[in-house]
Amino acid sequence: MQKHGDTPLKDHLLHTLHMIQQRERCITDESIHRIAAQYSLPVSQVRAVVAFYAFFQTEPCGDYHLFFSNCPACGYEQAGQNLLQMLAHKLNVQIGQTRPDGRISLHETSCIGMCDHGASLLVNGQPLTGLESASIERLANQIETAAPLHNWPQDWMHTDSAVHKTNLLLEDSFVPGAGLRTTLARGTDAALEIITHSGLRGRGGAGFATGRKWRLCKAAAGDARYVVCNADEGEPGTFKDRWLLQQQAERVLEGMAICAFIIGARQGFLYLRGEYRYLLPHLQTTLAQQRRQGLLGKNIGGEPGFEFDVDIVIGAGAYICGEESALIESLEGKPGIPRNRPPFPVTQGYLGQPTVVNNVETFWAAASIIVNGADWFKSVGTPESSGSKLLSISGDCTAPGIYEYPFGITVHQILRECGAMNTQAVQIGGPAGTLIGRADFQRKIGFEDLSTGGSFMVFGETRDMMTVVQNFTKFFAHESCGFCTPCRVGTTLLKHNLEKIATGHGTHLDIQTLRETSNLVQRYAHCGLGHTAANPILNSLQSFPEIFGQRLAARSFTPNFDLDAALSEARRLTRRDDSKAHLDSGY
Amino acid sequence: MPTDQQSFTLDNCKIPFSPGQTIMDAALAAKTYIPHLCHFPGISPQGNCKLCTVKIGTRQVAACTTLAEPDIVVESEIQELTDARRALTQMLFIEGNHICPSCEKTGNCSLQAMAYHLGMEDNHFPQFFPQREVDASHPQIWLDRDRCILCSLCVRASQEADGKHVFAIAGRGLDAQLIVNSSSGKLAESDLAPEDLAARICPVGAILIKEVGYQTPIGQRIFDQHKIDEIGLEQVILAHNTTATRDE
Amino acid sequence: MNNSKLKLATTSLAGCFGCHMSFLDMDERLEALLEHASFDRSPLTDIKTIGNCDIGLIEGGVCNAENAEVLRQFRANCRILVAVGACAINGGVPAMRNQYSLQECLEEVYLHGTGIVNPRIPDDIELPLLLDKVYPVGEIVKIDYYLPGCPPSADTFLHFFEALLQGKTPELPRETLHYD
After folding, report:
1. CATH assignment at residue C31
2. Does residue C115 fall inside a structural domain?
3. How far is CA A146 from CA A62, A136, A153, A251, A538, in A?
4. Chain C contacts of B214, Cβ < 8 Å?
5. Chain B residues closer than 8 Å to C177 by CB
6. Cβ–Cβ of B129/C148 closer than 8 Å?
7. Average pLDDT rounded to a whole number, residues A536-554
8. Quick check: B85 contacting C, CB < 8 Å?
C-alpha cells in the first residue's frame, strides 16, 4: 500500500503520483486503480490527471531521467551545435524515449528557470547548469558508469543567481516578523489600505490591483478563505521567483500570512512548479522556522485566534497551471484546465471558496510595503505602475541574472546595463509577452507599455529569430490544455504553418493563413494561454517581416507536404528507385 | 411575467433575461439562435467549442458561459463572427477523421449541419488524419473517437443527468481524448446504457447506438427536414435517438 | 462559334467515378451545356492528354504518384480548377486508409490477407507508387472552387456552370450544400 516514507507533504494526489513515478519509474494502470480506490475518485479522473502532467509517464522511464530545457535563452542550440542532440547521440538514446537497457530517458522540456546559467537540464529532478559540449561528454560518462547523482561534480549543480541591480525591495532590510507586527498593530482595514494605496499590482504580469483583489476576497461570502502563492513560474525566461524562494522565502511566506490576516484565511498553499521540486527541503525548513518564530501556525504574532499555515503543493510539468484558475484545479487534484471566469477565484476559488492567488513576488513586495508604507513604494515607478519590478535577464548579454528596476525604465537602458551588445530583439514577458526589435528599445517597462512578469530575453544580432519564434510557437502547442477548439487545434496549425515557412517552403498564401489563424487563436481562445499563443508570430510579422520574406518559395503555391518524401515509404517497401518512383517535391 | 424584467440587445433585438441567466439561455428562450455545438439546454455549460462566441463591444465571449447583463449590446450574426465560426468548424473537421459518406450519423449530425449553416465548402486547413482508437466492445453502443469533437456533452450528461460517471477527457492539447471510466477503459465494462442521456446526446457520430444506422431514409433524416438554427431542435435530436434505441 | 466555347477537362483520381456519374445526371440539360462548352481530356471523351482548358474538374483525392502528376497537369493547363466531391475535398472514403501505415496496408493486402498465393508486394515499375497517405487535392495544388457532396448533385453542377457561363462567381446555395 501507499508508503508515506519521509515526505512530510500532505497526501495530495499529485504528490502520491510523483512518489509512484519515482519508485516505479512510471505510473501503471494497476497503480491508477489503486490510487482511484484510495482517493475515492473515478478511475477516469486519475487517468486524466496522469495524462495531463508531463512529468507523469505510463511507460517505464530510465534510472536517469533527463529533462533537457529547450529554452532559447539558455543557448543550448547555438554556434552550429545543439547540446540536446549531442547528448542524445552520446547516450545513444532517442529524444523523448527511454533507452532499451532502461538506464536513461531523455525528454525535452520547456524552460526550467535556469536561463542565467546557460544550457541546463533536470536529472531526476536535480538541475544541472552551465552545460557545454565538454560537460555533455562528462555527463554521458557519469550515466554510463552509473555514478550516483550525489557524487556528480558539484559545480554542475550551481543554481544561485547573480543580483546585478537593486532598488527599493532588494535594498529593504526586512526583519522577519516586522510585516506581521505592523499588520496586527494597524488592523485589517488599515493594512489593506496600505496595500491598496501603494498601487501594488500583480507581479505575475497581468497586473490586477493587489489591494482590490484582497478586498474583493475579504468581502466575498464563503465558509473559508484561502491564500495561494503562485510559484508555478513557467513563463520561459523567468527565474526571479525561484531566486526569491531560494533567498527570501520567509518574506514571501510573511506576505502570505499578512494577506491571510487581512482576508481572514486559515489555510494557504504554495503551488510550486514541478521543475523546482529541489527547492522543497529549503522551503520546508523555512516553513518550520516561521512556525517556530510564531509567524505561522496558531496565535500568530501573539494575536489570539489568528491561525494560518501553508502547505506546499508541487506541480508536475504543465505551464497552464500558472493560470490562476488552472492552478486551483490542479490544487484540487484535477487536470489544470482553466475555469470559466467569472466567477473569479476571489469569490469562488479553491473548493469554491473565496481565494486570493498572487505571484511569489507580489507577496514578497506586500510584506515590505506594509512595513515601509505606501508612499515609500510609490516613490519610484510611474503613476500606473508604482514601485519596482524584478526582472530575470537572460540570453545574449554579459551579465544575466536578477535586476530590480523601477517601473518606467527603458529597454534601452536595461540592455546597456546588462551588457547586451548588438541586440536585435528582446522578448519581454516571455513568449506570452511582447517581442520587440530595435525600433522599440526606447519603450518602457510598465503595465501601461511593456508589461512583464519578469522575463527579459535578449537576442543578439547573430540569432536566427525564426528559430526563436518557432521555439515559442512549439512551446504553446505543447502546453495547450486542449480544452477549447481554437487553441487545441490552432496552436498546432500555427506550428505546422510556421515550419513550412521556416524551411523555405511557404508562400504569401501561407503567411496570410498564418496571420488569419493567429488572429483566430488570439481572439477566440478560452484563456490567457490561447490569447497570447500567437504573440511571437504576430509580433515578429510586425517587427521582423524579413525573417518571413527572405524564406518565401519562388512559386506562388506550394504543397503542404513534400510529395517526394511522401513516396519514400513505398520506395522502401517496393525497393524501387526508378524515375517514376519520384515526384517533384513541389517547393 | 414580471413587468420590470431586464433586457439586453442581441443583433438589434431586445432579449429579456432573468438574473443568473446566460446570454445563450436568454437568447434561446427568446427564440433567437446563436450557433453552438457543446451547449445543450439543461446541461451545465462549459464553453469549449467556442462556436457561440459573440461580441460585446470589442470583447469576444462565449454566449453559453457569459451571464447576461442589463443593457449590454451583443453582436452575433455579423460577418466577422460567421467567418470565425466557420474556421472553428473547419478546425473540428480537420483535427478528426470526419468522413461523412461513411458515417452512420450523416444527415443527423450537428457538426455537419453546423458546417452547412455556415456555408463551409472545404476544410481550409490541412487534414491531421489522426490515429484514434475505436471501442466496439459494448454490445449496444459503440464509440468511434475519430469523430469526437471533445465537446464533453457525454461527460456532463453522464454526471448530471444519468448520475453516472462514464466519460472523461484525458490528455493535453491535441492528445486530449475521450476516455471511459471502467477498469479496462472499454465501454463494455462501463455502466453506460443505451437509454442514458450520455449515449444519446453526442452531436456527432462518436457515440452511436448499434444496429440502427441508416434506418432513416435520406430525405427523412433530422437535417433533411430541419435546419440547425431551429429553436428547440435538441428535443427532435433526442427523440430521434430515443426512437433508435427503442427500435433496437 | 466553336472557339468561344468553354473548354472543359475532367478526371477521377482516387475516387469512384460517382461524381462523373452525377455529372451525367444532368441528362438532357447536358445538351444545353454543351452548346457553351466542349470537352478536352476526360473519361467521357477518352482523350488522354490535357490541352489548355478553361475549367478542370477533379474528382477523387491523391493516393499515388500518378494522381499527383495528373493533378499537376490539370493545374498547369486549367484556368479554373474545381475540386469535385468529398474525396477531392478531404480525401473521402479512400482516406480511411490513413488510419494505417502504408506498410500495414500493403502487408495486409498482399502478404497476410486470406487467399493469397505467392505473397509479394507488387513492385512493377509500371504501377504508380503509393503515397504514404491519401491527400485532399487542395494540399497539393491551388483550388479555385469546391463542389462538396458524395456526389454533388446534378443540380449543383448545373448551378455552378450556369454561374460561370454568366460570368458570375459561382456560389453554392446553402440548401444544396451536403457532404454525403
Report:
1. 3.40.50.700
2. no
3. 12, 15, 14, 40, 47
4. none
5. 115-116, 119-121
6. no
7. 97
8. no
A42 → closest Cβ in B84, B126, B168: B168
pLDDT attached to residue A154? 87
CA triple A484-A241-A526, angle to 5 deg = 10
Tens digit of each residue's pLDDT (9 = 90 or more) over A243-298: 999 999 999 999 999 999 999 999 999 999 999 999 999 999 999 999 999 999 99
Q: What is the pLDDT of residues A347-402, one digit of tens each?
A: 999 999 999 999 999 999 999 999 999 999 999 999 999 999 999 999 999 999 99
Look at residue C123 and tell me if it is in a domain.
no
Distance from CA of A533 to the nearest CA of C (A): 25
Q: Using N-to-C axis directions, what is the helix angle for A133-144 and A83-91, rounded to 10°?
A: 30
The count of other CB atoms within 10 Å of the CB of residue C118 is: 5
Contact B97 C99 (CB under 8 A): yes
C166 alpha carbon, distance to own chain's centre: 24
Q: Residue holding cell 529532478?
A: A125
Give the three cell numbers for residue B40.
445543450
ipTM of the complex: 0.96
- How close does chain C come to A576, measured CA to CA in Å? 7
Could you tell me if B69 and B98 lie in one domain? no
Which residue out of C63, C82, C90, C103 would a mutagenesis test of the B interface target, given it has the greatest number of B Cβ atoms within 10 Å?
C90
Q: Which of B93, B95, B114, B121 to mutate to test the interface with C (most CBs of C within 10 A)?
A: B121
Question: What are the structural domains of chain A?
Answer: 64-157 (3.40.30.10), 165-378 (3.40.50.11540), 388-460 (3.10.20.600), 466-549 (1.20.1440.230)
Q: Reduced to 3 DSSP states, what percent helix, strand and coil does chain B have, rounded to the nearest 5? A: 30, 15, 55
Q: Which residues 118-177 of C have a C-beta within 8 angstroms of A?
A: 121-123, 125, 128-133, 135, 139-142
Query: Is the same domain home to B41 and B88?
Result: no
State the total domains in chain C.
1
SS3 A122: strand
